[in-house]
Amino acid sequence: MINLFHINKPIIDTSKFSNLLHDKNIEELEQTLCNYVGAKYGCAMNSASSIIFLAMLRHSSMYSFNVIKIPSLIPPVVLNSIINAERKYEFVNDVNWVGNDYVLFKGHNIKIIDSAQKLRKNQFLNEEPNTLMFFSFYPTKPLGGSDGGLIVSNNYDMIKWFKEASLNGMEYSENNWDRKIKFPGWKMYMNSIQAEIILQNFKKYEYKLNAISDIRKIYNKHFGLDNTSDHLYRLNVSNRDELINIMKDNGVMCGIHYHATHLNPIYRNYDVLRGDGSLKISEKVSKTTISIPMHEQLSGHDLKKIMDLIDKYSKPARRFDI
């Protein structure tokens, strides 16, 4: 079977930890990845979804008149976090962000960038001081783990708030009994096992990116595309559902990223839905997008099989937004 993703499964010796929840490796992870992306401060949390929730709760509440503009083609967890933070939102017609990053919120000298599907060296280096950017370590992401997330900024006070909010609203201290409660917070901190898995996988991260880059170039040349994502390689095909089944029958797993969320009746009571027909592109792409395997374990034989099957049973379009 040729899987859509490859998930590393490192062996973790928990006996070396002084604390399963708050060992020093969490600080090591924060500093390591801040250095990698070019940020000064970072806060590791149990998931990127928790980061979105707290970010929406804090910064959007400061500017409650701002509507969160969010792509319709989006993982439901993003929208759920926005709704649970009681923020208003509006769907927009961005179908090209998938596999990369996008601005989730911007207002009054604050910018929040969702980079859950992208992690590259120095990508934060030229951002403004009050910018927040967050990453995901969900198992299938470029730097996967047993879930988890990291939010970074060059603004110390912002990151300090996330650290306290995710630690039950408490000031950090090495001893639990020395922590003072500042406000009613949430239990959303990253634990030591999560941090260790991410650190182990980070040792191989540049190798993984290089391997994926080589595969992406092969795909781009073959399909006549210019995809840039390290996370997903998407095609736009008219017979998407049929092709997924054909690929599966031939031992190749594919995926859908993503369905048009604005069509889901669950969310119709919450959104500020645009009714001017401008989401037709999202609706079309929702029916035609397919993600094919792209990971460091693929062999030349695997790639040939994938491309030959697609050539035989479908004809990918050159663009997504048509």
Strand count, sense and barrel status of the largest sheet are:
5 strands, mixed
Q: Briefly note the structural class of the backbone.
A: alpha/beta
Query: How many strands in all?
Result: 9
Strand residue content = 5-15%
Shape: globular
Mean pLDDT: 91
Return Rg in Å: 21 Å
Strand order of the largest sheet: 1-7-6-5-4
Structural account:
With 322 residues, this protein is an alpha/beta fold. The protein folds into two domains: 14-202, Aspartate Aminotransferase, domain 2 (3-Layer(aba) Sandwich); 205-313, Aspartate Aminotransferase, domain 1. The protein is built from nine helices and nine strands. The strands form three sheets. The chain has a five-stranded mixed β-sheet, sandwiched between helices. The model has no long low-confidence stretch (mean pLDDT 91).
Please give the structural blueprint.
Blueprint: H1 24-37, E1 41-45, H2 48-62, E2 68-71, H3 76-84, E3 89-92, E4 102-107, E5 110-114, E6 131-136, E7 149-153, H4 156-166, H5 192-202, H6 205-223, E8 233-236, H7 240-249, H8 280-288, E9 289-292, H9 300-313
Parallel strand pairs: 2-3, 5-6
Antiparallel strand pairs: 1-7, 4-5, 6-7, 8-9
Which structural traits does this protein have?
Aspartate Aminotransferase, domain 1; alpha/beta; single chain; Aspartate Aminotransferase, domain 2; two-stranded parallel ribbon; 5-stranded mixed sheet; 9 strands; 35% helix; 322 residues; 9 helices
Summary?
Helix content is 35%, strand content 13%. A 5-stranded mixed β-sheet has the order 1-7-6-5-4, sandwiched between helices. The chain has helices at residues 24-37, 48-62, 76-84, 156-166, 192-202, 205-223, 240-249, 280-288, 300-313; strands at 41-45, 68-71, 89-92, 102-107, 110-114, 131-136, 149-153, 233-236, 289-292.
